[in-house]
């Protein structure tokens, strides 16, 4: 910690709704968080929890979607990306904020060469000639570890493997020196050995270029090794937020507890049965009146069914959206790794 | 695995697992030197074969009655093709699949159908594996009809029982798949597989398409059903933590071949093959403190194409311990390096372990127990 870090992004009360035949879908529901320059944050949640829509609204892409309503403020270096006119958002999108999508197979255009796809953004945003843009593209491809970049730049996406395509995506995303990179499930489509390569690469480049990254994923393992701070989303809301180490060792929200317990871990003894979270995530068009997690929660009381908990502040800059988080604070940590964590923190302190 | 028990200390090269084993009562499925190659053709009218995808390139294994054999590997390593070939859903290029001693490749028609009743499959994608135009009752009841397992009058009752067994409300019998969530659809797929009372089920990535909080439910269901009906599973997955959780023994595949096969705890605590070691070290552990201490073995490059697999050991192009002139020339056989632990690597000779002991990279607890039982 320490050092002078300035706030890069502040999201305040962001809500995204979609009008559908089945009623209003509350995809993102009063989400607030902030991000420092160069910070690595993990946004964790299951499909349909609103994590991708949050990212897309930061890019100003949600407001183009049909039947969508966005409210709240997304302050990026003093500009509100929610109310900024499209022409101005375009100057930010792809330049200061860029995105890596989950599927490198569908996110690259199959009929354009890598050269075309890379130089387009560079020419527009950095105002370079085509020749200079090609030079920069080759540089970027080398940076992400594409062998023989000078030749491969003329290739088409199908000539690259999945891992290589994701490297190309990262090269494109970083080519204009963005201050913020949104990585939406960047390694989900990749194999474990390739995943390890890509995560390392992203971490290294973020450090070198002081780019902040929001890693959006359902895989708790991916963010554990990479991010310092974690946001957990459930049914369109942030339910828990805090520094990664204490959050993983001693979660303060029943959903986080359940998520961590339901995945088998390689470094723990085998258990007979996994502790699953019973039930299903709620329908975002018909959210329960109280806490959205209440129907699946073992702590739920009448209060939980009736009113929506706000993000209560807890110790060490942590927040939890649970009426009963005090009980979890006092409870034994969910995992035996806690002793290790305590030791690790004593070291870094 | 009957050959394994005669093994003394660090003995000589043992034969391939399946060769050593005759079909004893403990073995439900025996796979011998299985090969599945897909032809690559050229030309439109007169198609010529110009090459082949070596999806499965000579694997031998045994699935014992009542066990769960985990089959792990990265995408394209041939694990799913192996599972499908065992059920004869893919034509075999070579080798044999014996089910209870009977060669499935020689069966056809009615005899094959009769055998197929004993073996079922649970598919990866619950959105693609259920016919969207059939009701749930028809989907689960169809196998009963095809195999003439129960009279028409009892079919509905049996279907209801099956749905209840997997945790689906039997009153939803007349609904269509789109009305169910992913996890519920996977339960329906499991009910369909169970309808014919199989002994053996190939689970092909049954949870990878599901949400994290739902995965544990399905794993627990599969384990419960195994206990209840004495099922034998071939559990195919790329998630090593899940495979460790559910399997009794684990086989690791790389580019169409098995590189290592052992008891669950042996494989995870003392992996021997460099690929298994790298694979285990790359699995992220959801714990920042543990992740900080781990030093994953990051493999260079990508998995080579199965169209033109590398010479010698298929892994030699990425192996951190490769020895030139050996690994790129000779094809390592899967040998029993110590009782019930099989590996295919030139650097591992029975009784003598390679220097690449990297179990400490896998996790603090695994490192502590690594190489403990060297004596066998």
DSSP strand count of chain A: 12
Strand content of chain A: 15-25%
The whole-number mean of residue pLDDT values of chain A reads: 89
Distance between the termini of chain B: 16 Å
The helix/strand order of chain A is EEEHEEHEHHHHEHEHEEHHHEEHH
Biggest sheet of chain A, open or closed, and with what strands and sense?
8 strands, mixed
Overall 3D form of chain B? globular
The CATH homologous superfamily of the largest domain in chain A: P-loop containing nucleotide triphosphate hydrolases
Characterize the biggest β-sheet of chain B: 8 strands, mixed
- Say what the CATH topology of the largest domain in chain A is: Rossmann fold
Specify Rg of chain B, calculated over alpha carbons: 22 Å
Strand order of the largest sheet of chain B: 6-7-8-3-9-10-12-11
Walk me through the structure.
By secondary structure, chain A is an alpha/beta fold. Chain A contains 13 helices and twelve strands. In chain A, the strands form two sheets. Chain A has an eight-stranded mixed sheet, sandwiched between helices. In chain A, helix 3 crosses helix 4 (130-143) and helix 4 crosses helix 6 (162-174). Mean pLDDT of chain A is 89; it is low at 336-349. Chain B has 376 residues and is an alpha/beta fold. Helix content of chain B is 29%, strand content 22%. Chain B has helices spanning 17-20, 79-86, 109-116, 136-146, 152-165, 182-194, 212-229, 240-246, 264-269, 274-282, 288-293, 364-369; strands at residues 27-42, 48-64, 68-72, 94-99, 102-103, 119-122, 200-204, 232-237, 249-254, 257-263, 335-338, 341-343. In chain B, the strands form two sheets. An eight-stranded mixed sheet of chain B has the order 6-7-8-3-9-10-12-11, with helices on both faces. In chain B, helix 5 (152-165) packs across helix 6 (182-194) and helix 6 packs parallel to helix 7. The longest helix of chain B is centred in the middle third of the chain and has 18 residues, at 212-229. Residues 1-23 and 354-376 of chain B have low confidence and may be disordered. Classes of the chains: A alpha/beta (349), B alpha/beta (376). At the A-B interface, helix 6, helix 7, helix 8, helix 9 and helix 10 of A face helix 7, helix 8, helix 9, helix 10 and helix 11 of B.
């Amino acid at each position: 910690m320490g050092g002078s870090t300035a706030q890069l992004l502040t999201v305040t009360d962001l809500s995204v709704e979609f009008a559908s035949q089945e009623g209003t879908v509350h995809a993102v529901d009063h989400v607030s968080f902030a991000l420092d320059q160069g910070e690595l944050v993990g946004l964790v949640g299951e499909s349909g929890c609103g994590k991708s829509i949050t990212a897309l609204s930061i890019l100003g892409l949600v407001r183009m979607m049909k039947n969508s309503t966005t409210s709240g403020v997304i302050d990026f270096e003093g500009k509100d990306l929610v109310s900024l006119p499209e022409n101005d958002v375009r100057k930010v999108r792809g330049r200061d904020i860029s995105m890596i999508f989950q599927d490198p197979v569908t996110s690259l255009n199959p009929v354009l060469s890598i050269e075309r796809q890379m130089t387009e953004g560079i020419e527009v945003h950095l105002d370079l000639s085509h020749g200079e843009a090609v030079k920069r593209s080759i540089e970027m491809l080398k940076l992400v570890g594409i062998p023989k970049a000078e030749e491969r730049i003329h290739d088409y996406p199908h000539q690259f493997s999945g891992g290589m395509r994701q490297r190309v995506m990262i090269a494109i995303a970083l080519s204009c020196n963005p201050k913020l990179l949104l990585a939406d499930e960047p390694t989900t489509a990749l194999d474990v050995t390739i995943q390890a390569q890509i995560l390392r690469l992203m971490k290294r480049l973020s450090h070198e270029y002081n780019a902040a990254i929001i890693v959006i994923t359902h895989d708790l393992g991916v963010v554990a090794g990479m991010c310092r701070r974690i946001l957990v989303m459930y049914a369109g809301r942030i339910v828990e937020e805090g520094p990664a180490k204490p959050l993983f060792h001693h979660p303060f929200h029943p959903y986080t507890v359940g998520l961590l317990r339901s995945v088998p871990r390689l470094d723990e003894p085998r258990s007979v049965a996994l502790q699953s979270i019973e039930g299903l995530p709620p329908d975002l068009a018909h959210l329960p009146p109280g806490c959205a997690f209440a129907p699946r929660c073992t702590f739920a009381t009448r209060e939980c069914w009736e009113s929506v908990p706000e993000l209560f502040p807890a110790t060490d800059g942590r927040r939890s959206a649970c009426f009963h988080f005090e009980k979890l604070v006092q409870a034994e940590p969910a995992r035996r790794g806690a002793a290790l964590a305590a030791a690790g923190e004593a070291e870094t302190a | 695995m009957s050959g394994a028990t005669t093994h003394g200390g660090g003995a000589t090269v043992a034969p391939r697992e399946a060769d050593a084993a005759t079909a004893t009562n403990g073995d439900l499925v025996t796979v011998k030197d299985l090969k599945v190659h897909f032809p690559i053709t050229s030309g439109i009218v007169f198609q010529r074969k110009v090459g082949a995808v070596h999806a499965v390139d000579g694997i031998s294994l045994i699935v014992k009655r009542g066990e769960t054999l985990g089959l792990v590997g990265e995408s394209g390593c041939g694990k799913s093709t192996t599972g499908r070939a065992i059920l004869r859903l893919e034509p075999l290029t070579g080798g044999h699949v014996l089910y209870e001693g009977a060669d499935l490749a020689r069966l056809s028609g009615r005899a094959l159908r009769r055998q197929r009743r004993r073996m079922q499959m649970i598919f990866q994608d619950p959105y693609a594996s259920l016919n969207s135009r059939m009701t749930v009752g028809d989907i689960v009841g169809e196998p009963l009809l095809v195999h003439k397992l129960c009279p028409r009058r009892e079919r509905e009752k049996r279907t209801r029982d099956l749905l209840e067994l997997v945790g689906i409300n039997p009153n939803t019998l007349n609904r269509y798949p789109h009305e169910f969530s992913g996890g519920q659809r996977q339960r329906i797929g499991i009910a369909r597989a169970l309808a014919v009372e199989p002994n053996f089920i190939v689970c092909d990535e049954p949870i990878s398409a599901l949400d994290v909080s739902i995965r544990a439910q399905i794993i627990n269901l599969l384990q419960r059903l195994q206990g209840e009906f004495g099922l034998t599973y071939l559990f195919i997955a790329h998630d090593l933590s899940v495979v460790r959780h559910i399997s009794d023994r684990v086989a690791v595949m790389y580019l169409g071949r098995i590189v290592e096969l052992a008891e669950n705890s042996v494989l995870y605590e003392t992996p021997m093959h460099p690929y298994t070691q790298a694979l285990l070290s790359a699995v992220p552990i959801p714990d920042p403190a543990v992740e900080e201490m781990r030093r994953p073995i990051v493999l260079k490059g990508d998995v080579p194409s199965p169209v033109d697999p590398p010479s010698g050991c298929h892994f030699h192009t990425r192996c951190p311990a490769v020895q030139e002139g050996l690994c790129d020339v000779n094809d390592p056989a899967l040998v029993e390096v110590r009782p019930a632990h099989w590996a295919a690597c030139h650097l591992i000779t029975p009784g003598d372990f390679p220097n690449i002991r990297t179990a400490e990279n896998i996790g603090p607890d695994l490192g502590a127990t690594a190489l403990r039982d060297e004596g066998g």
